[in-house]
Q: What sequence folds into this?
């Protein structure tokens, strides 16, 4: 076989990538993009794309000085992920996003189900320690177990990223709960003004108490957003009950509230998530009170999106946390931590309001300005 015939089996971009890796290996000191371009004589655009890919895959690091250096990788990186619960749609969406990102990045991902239970989450953390993972991404809801889990992982020398519920000394990743709740409340208030003439008899917040104050600030924000639109509300008209973030418990809690307040005809409901919202809605329909409610929740799970398509549904909207972005951003944060890069303690995801009534808020804001 001739040399030219052999060449047709080569992959040019892979060959150039190896040239970059070999250069970084030869030069123990870190190099700039310009230096790598000059020494390899590969086009600067191609060098830039190769370096970005190598950084993304964890083979190369780029600290704040802007220079690239080879990262020692004696074995494939292993991340542990404690998923909130396989019974919850949003949790499953986070898991799938993370699986896809880990696969694309060449990371081995070990997934354990926390089953919405703090004790099981603690046991899973012990398993991650036993398996000697490089980093743990923890999505568990019980604030009482958060310090226990964080302390055990710290003792094992394992960095921790906490999803949605803060853990001591962990990097936080999740939504800005108060701001998301505030936007939900503003739309609920605008809805009441538009369709109920501003009359509101009752505002119900369905909390997730065990998650702690940060998650509960979704409800705090919602109440403030409603107050900004409906100025004559009294403290006794705003009540908070624990829906636990689960459908059955939220169903029971909402059933009890509506039974107690039989005369309330204009009820705004701010649940902690869509699963809780669906439970509240089921209670209202059982009591034939759904036409008295307007509900706006969080997560945009498929069942909630289908419910919102019904024009007569009291579920008027949900706050999307753009769950597809969770996986790539979590992997990026994890690699940055392991590469010794500076990582902000709080990392907020983008959120957006999904509702056929969202223009109500924009219209009022335009009139106010």
A:
């Amino acid at each position: 076989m001739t040399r030219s015939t052999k060449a047709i089996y080569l992959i040019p971009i892979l060959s150039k990538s190896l040239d970059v890796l070999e250069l970084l290996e030869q030069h123990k000191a870190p190099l700039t993009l310009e230096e790598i371009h000059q020494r390899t004589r590969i086009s600067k655009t191609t060098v830039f794309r190769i370096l970005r890919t190598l950084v993304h895959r964890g083979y190369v690091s780029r600290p704040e000085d802007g220079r690239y250096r080879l990262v020692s990788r004696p074995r494939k990186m292993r991340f542990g992920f404690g998923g909130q619960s396989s019974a919850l749609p949003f949790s499953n969406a986070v898991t799938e996003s993370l699986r896809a990102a880990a696969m694309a990045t060449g990371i081995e991902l070990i997934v354990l189900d926390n089953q919405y239970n703090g004790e099981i989450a603690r046991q899973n953390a012990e398993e991650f320690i036993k398996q000697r993972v490089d980093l743990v991404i923890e999505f568990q809801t019980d604030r009482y177990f958060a310090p226990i889990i964080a302390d055990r992982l710290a003792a094992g020398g394992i960095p921790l990223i906490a999803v949605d519920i803060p853990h001591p000394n962990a990097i936080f990743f999740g939504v800005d709960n108060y701001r998301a709740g505030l936007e939900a409340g503003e739309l609920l208030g605008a809805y009441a003004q538009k369709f109920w003439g501003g009359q509101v008899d009752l505002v119900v917040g369905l909390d997730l108490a065990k998650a702690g104050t940060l998650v509960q600030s979704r409800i705090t924000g919602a109440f403030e957003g409603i107050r900004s639109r409906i100025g004559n509300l009294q403290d006794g008209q705003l009540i908070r009950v624990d829906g636990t973030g689960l459908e059955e418990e939220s169903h029971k809690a909402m059933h009890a509230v509506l039974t107690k307040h039989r005369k309330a005809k204009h009820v705004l409901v701010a649940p902690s998530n869509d699963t809780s919202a669906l439970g509240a809605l089921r209670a209202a329909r059982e009591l034939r009170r759904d036409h008295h409610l307007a509900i706006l929740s969080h997560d945009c799970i498929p069942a909630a999106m289908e419910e919102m398509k019904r024009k007569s549904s009291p579920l008027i909207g949900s706050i999307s946390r753009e769950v597809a972005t969770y996986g790539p951003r979590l992997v990026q944060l994890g690699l940055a931590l392991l590469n010794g890069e500076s990582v902000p303690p709080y990392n907020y995801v983008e959120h957006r309001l999904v509702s056929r009534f969202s223009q109500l808020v924009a219209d009022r804001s335009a009139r106010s300005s």
